[in-house]
Specification:
By secondary structure, the chain is an alpha+beta fold. Helices cover about 15% and strands about 30% of the residues. The strands form eight sheets. Strands 18-17-19-23-24-28 form a six-stranded mixed β-sheet, with helices on one face. Strands 2-9-8-4-6 form a five-stranded mixed β-sheet, with no helix packed on it. A four-stranded antiparallel β-sheet has the order 1-3-7-5, with no helix packed on it. α3 packs parallel to α7 and α7 packs across α8. About 5% of the residues have low confidence.
Length: about 575
């Protein structure tokens, strides 16, 4: 028995020693990608639009500045859109860095969706106009057009605070010896953003006492922005007349002084008031580019003194529309001022008895249809067939169809993705006016239909529809071919952008339209201005000046050239 037990132990011992051994090992892992499967029901109709917003919201993207990309999706089809991907096409260009994929799993029929994607401007960003291009794909192959976002970029710059002017806050507006006065100095940053900024106002003359009271600003002074500093100053009564007091402001960034600025202030001397700078920073102003005056652009003339026409036109009516502050689109530079100016010219120079002017929020929804419908519209009820002269002036955005087949006048609340339903097509506009059977119809359009805003030094030029560069090939309705009393003046050709004229604070076309109506267009000096004379004058001046500002703009006249518009005393 003992031998049997021993034999069993001998047999079991290896199993006990090695049977519980854990053998470790490592196998190569594999990532399994599960693609979703969708079922097709009804077709979708997907549209995508985008816009960029920089941290300062000044329209200039600076090097290393955080940026937000707003992506708007809309499905106007009958079925859901699935697996929507938005991918950059120009990934080799490291201008704006995107670390997130833009993906939407489903967008139901009739739904809208917005995604906010964080971007970061690269350190080596260059100064100039730039763009991002995106492709959009959908699971079932419903692909909208390529989306393009345009922006202005600024390379990394050192902060450059400068003194813009001084104001003595008393009745006389000057500093007197022995008196205490509150003083305000305005600084503007013409360079890169100033971070963690603070200020100290002081004097190196013991006879001048400074008490720094307040600043009107933030800890950060972005490119192109201003700050107002207020302090109290007391000077010795024996100083007499001093043209240049030793008063300074020290500018600090994160507790390190980066600039000491001399404040132009004297005793019994009128201080240098604030220099006039645009409210919006632009590449030209911020980076001290060559001024328009150096290129020969004329200063604005007085267009507010308006001569009266020979006789009032009692049977005329004018519609004036200016849309500047759009809800969902960039600002249309000077559109409201354009409308205000042309209201006066229509009243006084052209002698129009009834002028109806509409601004911004008044031009919303189905405004155009309610106004111009030839049967039930407001205008149709005021027009006497064959007797009433009708004038229409419009300043605002013009929006083209992506296929170039139509262009739209746009209300203040219009959305680009619904351009065909929100906008008022030019074909319909011309047809409705022609259907009124007025004695004469004269239209002035200060709007371009290339898909971008008017260029201005005081505003950031932007693409408004993702259709920049689209050429409107033709407009279906052209009443001037069959109606010899139908006339249209446009600010530019279909393949051109229109410009603003900052010197006058109006559109470039509207500025020379006003000068022409004022009398400059009377080429033969007979006291009459015909449609041809006005067109020749506007076109020649706008073409010449636009080439000195930015590219060529060529106004056009559609209609016969021998119609007398104005007759002066």
């Amino acid at each position: 028995m003992r031998y049997v037990v021993i034999s069993l132990w001998i047999c079991l011992l290896p199993a006990l020693l090695f049977g519980q051994r854990v053998v470790s090992g490592k196998s190569e892992g594999k990532r399994v990608k599960i693609e979703p499967v969708y079922e097709f029901s009804k077709p979708s109709r997907l549209s995508v639009s985008m816009r960029l917003q920089d941290r300062n919201e000044d329209g200039l993207i600076e090097a290393a500045e955080p940026v937000k990309l707003y992506v708007y999706f809309q499905n106007s089809g009958e079925g859901s859109a699935f697996g929507i991907k938005v991918e950059r096409l120009d990934t080799s260009r490291n201008t704006l860095i995107c670390r997130e994929n833009i993906y939407l799993s489903e967008l139901q029929a009739g739904a809208e969706r917005m995604l906010v994607i964080p971007l970061l401007a690269s350190e080596d960003l260059r100064t100039g106009a730039d763009s991002l291009r995106f492709s959009v794909s959908e699971y079932f192959g419903v692909q909208p057009d390529t989306s393009v976002v345009y922006f202005n970029s600024v390379e990394r710059l050192e902060p450059d605070p400068v003194c813009m002017g001084v104001e003595v806050l008393n009745d006389a507006g000057i500093l007197r010896a022995g008196e205490t006065a509150d003083v305000k100095v305005v600084l503007r940053n013409l360079g890169g953003s100033l971070e963690g900024c603070n200020y100290r106002v002081y004097s190196t003359d013991a006879n001048v006492l400074i008490k720094y009271t307040s600043e009107q600003g933030k800890d950060r002074l972005p490119i192109g922005e201003s700050v107002g500093l207020q302090f109290q100053i007391t000077s010795d009564c024996q100083l007499g007349v001093v043209k240049d007091l030793p008063v300074f402001v020290a500018v600090y960034s994160n507790d390190v002084m980066i600039r000491r600025l001399k404040i132009p202030l004297g005793i019994n001397e009128l201080p240098v008031r604030y220099a006039v700078f645009p409210s919006y920073p632009t590449l030209e102003n911020v980076l001290r580019m060559k001024t328009l005056q150096d290129r020969g652009v004329p200063e604005g003339e007085d267009i507010l003194r308006i001569p009266r026409g020979k006789t009032p036109n009692e049977e005329a009516i004018a519609i004036v529309i200016g849309v500047e502050n759009y809800r969902y689109l960039p600002i249309a530079p000077y559109a409201c001022k354009d409308a205000m100016l042309m209201t006066k010219y229509l009243q006084y120079a052209l002698g129009v008895n009834r002028v109806l002017t509409f601004y911004d929020s008044e031009v919303r929804g189905d405004f155009f249809e309610k106004l111009f419908d030839p049967v039930n519209g407001k205008l149709s009820k005021m027009v006497k067939k064959g007797k009433t002269d009708v004038y229409v002036y419009y300043s605002g955005h013009g929006v083209p169809e992506k296929n170039g087949e139509e262009a739209y006048l746009f209300p203040v609340d219009g959305k680009i993705m619904n351009a065909s339903s929100c906008g008022y097509g030019l074909s319909c506009f011309y047809r409705d006016l022609d259907s009124l059977e007025a004695r004469n119809v004269v239209v002035f359009l200060d709007a371009c239909f290339m898909g971008d805003t008017k260029y201005s030094r005081n505003y950031v030029s932007q693409n408004i529809s993702g259709t920049k560069g689209v050429v409107v090939r033709r407009i279906g309705q052209a009443p001037w071919h069959t109606n010899r009393n139908f006339f249209v003046f446009t600010s530019s050709r279909n393949d051109q952008s229109s410009l603003a004229f900052d010197q006058s604070g109006t559109g470039l076309f509207t500025y020379y339209l006003a000068l022409g109506l004022k009398g400059a267009a009377d080429a033969d000096g007979d006291g009459k201005i015909t449609t041809g004379e006005l067109s020749d004058y506007i076109s020649s001046r706008v073409v010449e000046v636009s080439q000195k500002i930015r590219g060529e703009q060529t106004p056009q006249l559609f209609g016969r050239p021998d119609k007398v518009l104005i007759e002066y005393n």
